[in-house]
Write a structure and sequence with these properties.
Layout: H1 2-20, E1 33-35, H2 42-52, E2 67-74, E3 80-86, E4 89-90, E5 93-98, E6 103-111, E7 123-124, H3 143-199
């Protein structure tokens, strides 16, 4: 049982580590092109993806089948971009392309779950065309805004690392508590059998 719990712990830790990993990919910036509009339907998306042919781009960030076409806003929400990059799993926010970090990421200022046509609480970045509200652009961009967006990638990675460490500590404490409980239960069984053996006739048999 303890072995299974440990295996589960390792599996959860691995999943959390992968999900918090940066999907930064320098090559993605070379595929970036400004566009006037993004696809509105699955058909339009598939046509645009076929023309972009992201799987043919030479890169070593992810397997070629995970290097996908995207159409999203830039980090300042001032232009629309077509770009190839690793698929990103959003936590219910509009996805953007951070030019400084060369990464697709959530824009935490745009919670698309509260839009009139809301997004799912989790969705993959290649489904963003389903949530057209994420393509609305801002009308102004101040130097302060640009500076904030420039550092947003690093801040997001820091937050993810804090979450990963916190969850890892909690799982470690749970695993330790379980091991201690099993150890005490085993000792209690041994003591019980010893008392039974010493207090009466009969053959001693350890109960596992």
């Amino acid at each position: 049982m303890a072995k299974h719990i440990f295996q589960l712990y390792v599996y959860i830790f691995t999943i959390l580590q992968v999900s918090c990993e940066s999907k930064s990919c320098n090559v993605s910036k070379t595929t970036m092109v400004e566009v006037k509009r993004c696809p509105k339907t699955a058909e339009e998306w598939n046509i645009a993806a076929s023309l972009k042919n992201c799987s043919a781009v030479h890169q070593s960030c992810v397997p070629s089948y995970e290097f996908k076409y995207h159409c999203v806003k830039n980090g300042n929400s001032t232009i629309l971009l077509e770009v190839c990059g690793p698929v990103w799993r959003s936590a219910g926010y509009c996805v953007e392309y951070n030019e400084a970090g060369h990464i697709l990421q959530d824009n935490y200022n745009e919670n698309c779950t509260i839009f009139s046509k809301p997004c799912s609480r989790t969705y993959i970045s290649t489904d963003i065309y389903k949530y057209q509200g994420c393509y609305e652009l801002v009308t102004s961009d101040t130097p302060i805004d640009r500076e904030k967006r420039k550092h947003s990638w690093g801040e997001r990675i820091t937050i993810d690392k804090i979450i990963l460490v916190g969850v890892t500590i909690i799982l470690s404490l749970v695993l330790l508590a379980f091991i201690m409980y099993k150890k005490r239960a085993h000792i209690a069984r041994i003591n019980k059998n010893a008392i039974r053996f010493l207090s009466g006739p009969g053959r001693y048999t350890e109960q596992v």
